[in-house]
Amino acid sequence: MTANGPMFTVQVPASTANLGPGFDSIGLAVSKYLIVDVYEDTGWRCVAKSPALEGTPTDESNLLFQTALEVAYEYKKTLPYCRLEVESDIPLTRGLGSSASAIIAGIEIANILCDLQLSMQEKLDIASVMEGHIDNVGASLYGGLVIGTYDGQSAALVQQSITDMELVAIIPSYELKTSDARNVLPGQLSYAEAIQGSGVSNLLVAALLKEDWKLAGEAMKRDLFHEPYRTPLVAELQVLKTLPSHSDIYGYALSGAGPTVLCFVRKGAGELISKELKEHFPSCAVEGLQIVNEGVQVVFNTVTHLKG
């Protein structure tokens, strides 16, 4: 540790998940960040330095510490006392992977402080167990587009960089808890519905990997797994569906469990689309986002934040 700086800094990108029919299996890292400076200390303390984190726990009950302590325990290590100074522009409970980014940061903190030397696969498996699915944590860990599966014990994914598409986020002021969004989903689908839904999901994956954004956008709109049930909870998605088609908007999807809605737009059109959509969503934050092809990053002995 330097005299003026932390021992190390962990930066984790936010994420969006599902992308329509890619339910619990497709994620994308986006340009909002959780940044954690880790200092030596005589206890476990967490200091929030961003308005988005106001009200989060300051002791070991914070998700960052909970994750790090659990990982250390699983590997029969003792997590050293430390102070975490945390900044974030990822809105909480808005469908942009705030908990997933904290889990990835917590794993890295334990990995470094306890010298675990975890592989990326081990980190992914741990994160998937903690989060319960792979899409958000996979995107925050690896960056870019991730497509994968998690069977309750182990996770597997494919990562792909995306460079020629932008996003516009419509972020409502209200929160939508993941548990509430999950409760509206059906307990099961018929065999015919499952076949049709998986076919649409397969089409989405093929279109994304082929970089056929128009086809990918169409596939997003044909989801059968979650959006039909969650749309009544998100007025913004209902409004978006009524707007005329736009040549620069390939498609849109509920981000994770919502309520954020993401528009997938032509490269270079994000700023213009943001201005146009603000007229339709005056009570929401409407902003352009970039796809981030780098996942979690760690820099030692630094006071320079990595963002961007």
UniProtKB/TrEMBL annotation:
- Which NCBIfam families does UniProt cross-reference here? thrB (TIGR00191)
Give a yes or no for keyword Transferase in this entry: yes
Q: Which family does it belong to?
A: Belongs to the GHMP kinase family. Homoserine kinase subfamily.
MF annotations from Gene Ontology: homoserine kinase activity
Question: From which domain of life does this come?
Answer: Bacteria
Q: Which Pfam families match?
A: GHMP_kinases_C, GHMP_kinases_N
List the pathway annotation: Amino-acid biosynthesis; L-threonine biosynthesis; L-threonine from L-aspartate: step 4/5
Q: What is this protein called?
A: Homoserine kinase
Which residues are in the GHMP kinase C-terminal domain? 205-282
Q: What is its EC number?
A: 2.7.1.39
Q: Which organism is it from?
A: Ectobacillus funiculus
* Domain called GHMP kinase N-terminal: residue spans: 63-144
Location(s), subcellular: Cytoplasm
Give the principal location in a single coarse category.
cytoplasm
> Which taxonomic lineage is given here?
Bacteria, Bacillati, Bacillota, Bacilli, Bacillales
